[in-house]
């Protein structure tokens, strides 16, 4: 591959990746007056062509089954044609491998804004105890920072991004700076009443959707299609909310289709820039910068560091501890659904709301662990309502009821009477779950790829069984009937496949010293002062809270610190 | 409970028709400056293209095949007092279009139509189209029945395969597909593509009374719906 190193421009900072971490980084750094380069492995985002939230299936002759009916053969887009997932579980020419006996699926996005274009936008703060999990039960690792350290940055992130929610004073899920939350829907009210009866806390959801105008963004118009992208940017995406405005400062230069391969260093223990493959020309190029900020996603940033080998760091940059790639975590996932007779024949209404459930259940047994057979906790997400009819949505019902007038009437009657619950729980980091470079495989850009190893332990399995029991209790308390898994399926599918909740974090965890971690509490490499990692790689644990808001907060704090240190001449 | 936005449930849910809504969004986007004008134009251009469509021209199937498909569409989702049929919803067009784009789908349907007519001749000495309506439904009933039987056996086998008790027990295997096996598979394809086409069409939206994906200035939950469900719930 030819190399083009002619560019002599030296940026104050180069940021790799434009998702939640990278978006926050370019927003904060350009606001501080720094001259920033942003590398994105995918193309620029064109919201006009990428976002389909206002389309209906009949707008397309394939109705969402995609050209040639790809969806019928399992070859459609992940999460469906209409979702704005520019990426997938497998990317053409950019493989990863999985160790024998392990299962792991890695979702990668390749577009400006990354996975923030389509994520669920659940935005929960870590609890105080989440930062010191080892102190609580002797498992896993403490973070080198406390809730008090991060709380001001949760404030900043929430106020800037915009989170709708309510103040509830629940210790497992601290309150934030909230915009008004929309009212509960009917099925959610039934869930809440069932939860009241069972002693489960059920409160307004907290999602990164603005219910009032904010910073030039229009308030949510309740089309309910956040997963398809939001042209009005009422739902947060880093591209629209952070990167585009940062470009307007004139201090940000975006390099798209730029696949970072390694961090470049000098002989004085400093990073000097990033070597990337320009996908447009298949050329190696270099961006020089005073500070390198990785935000390529937990595993992709880990991969870049593992691929940045020097004399001093033969096993990957800033990896004196040997822990790079170790203690990879995902969220424990389990789902169960049922049907609720009380909803049959209800006068239909628009159940879209702000695009997700309006209620959720935070972990409610944080002080009852002596009565449980697993550590840590989970929160519960709710599904239900009159969703948009889509390809594939009625195959099961049609098979059950045959065909003809009866089938048509049954489908009509059962529409909107289902309820679903998804548990999202904390996994304990373990030594069997990690990624490393596969010594035998490179991607089509010539970059060595990751090999994943992953194991759930009894902690996670037992937690999933608790979810199952709880969801069945809630469905039953609503007067509903569990329709979820059969006994046989439960044995093999009673827990999510690792990686599939897309909350993979860890790999370059933060800690107190270079001996037991890669980064310090400011997401700064212990062993290289001008190298930062501001995505999920820094996580020392993976609480049941969806990671994005914490990535936003940690990245904001890291970049504040970085800019200050730069002023002082320390980086 | 907590400080939710109060339920303004007595107010009717605000809605705009689709076109004025697209316009509203476009105007909103342009004034906000978060999106270029082309974006709004793009939305309008697509809407105009939809309207310009003429009568459908069959691309993949023979005239007889297409008529069979149309008849099957009406049998699978007939019109009733709520909404039209799968034929009204454009199911044959949808299937013909995808079959024309994908040889695999085309073969399933070409072969399936041939199988169906052969089976009908055996049973009734007439093609599917030429047979009496009750003969057509008898045929479909037989396929549904055979399909259920096969599915039941498959589920049982799944239970045995996954069960630790029967892990090494090889005596239990699925019964060989019965004589209608090929027809069951074909009918499953016709049915699933037909219901897909029906429920994703404006006719299907009307049938289910789907009223979402609209622009609202405020989100409310109607009190009558809330009362209806609560009254019928264990919390009444």
Can you put this structure into words, describing what you see?
The complex is a heterodimer of chains A (571) and B (236). The model of chain A has no long low-confidence stretch (mean pLDDT 96). Chain A has 2 domains: 1-45 and 106-156 and 237-329 and 505-571, FAD/NAD(P)-binding domain, CATH 3.50.50.60; 163-235 and 332-425 and 457-494. In chain A, 24% of the residues lie in helices and 19% in strands. Chain A has helices at 20-31, 47-50, 133-137, 147-161, 186-198, 238-248, 298-307, 395-401, 404-414, 458-477, 487-493, 548-568; strands at 3-4, 10-16, 36-39, 87-88, 97-98, 108-109, 163-164, 178-179, 203-204, 252-255, 258-265, 271-278, 283-294, 332-339, 359-361, 378-384, 418-425, 434-442, 448-453, 481-482, 524-525, 528-533. By secondary structure, chain A is α/β, with parallel strands linked by helices. In chain A, the strands form 5 sheets. In chain A, strands 1, 2, 3, 10, 11, 12, 13, 21 and 22 form a 9-stranded mixed beta sheet that branches. Chain A contains 12 helices and 22 strands. In chain A, strand 11 and strand 12 (271-278) form a beta hairpin. With 236 residues, chain B is mostly helical. In chain B, helix 3 packs across helix 7 (181-199), helix 4 packs across helix 7 (181-199) and helix 6 (133-162) crosses helix 7. Mean pLDDT of chain B is 79; it is low at 1-50. The interface between A and B is large, with 98 and 91 residues.
Mean pLDDT of chain B: 79
Q: Rg of chain B from C-alpha positions?
A: 25 Å
Average pLDDT confidence of chain A is 96
Report the total helices of chain B: 9
Low-confidence stretches of chain B: 1-50
CATH class of the largest domain in chain A: Alpha Beta
Assign the CATH architecture of the largest domain in chain A. Answer: 3-Layer(bba) Sandwich
Total separate domains of chain A = 2
> Largest chain-chain contact?
A-B, 98 and 91 residues
CATH superfamily of the largest domain in chain A: FAD/NAD(P)-binding domain
Overall shape of chain B: globular
Q: List SSEs of chain B in N-to-C order.
A: HHHHHHHHH
Q: How many strands in all of chain A?
A: 22
β-strand amount of chain B = under 5%
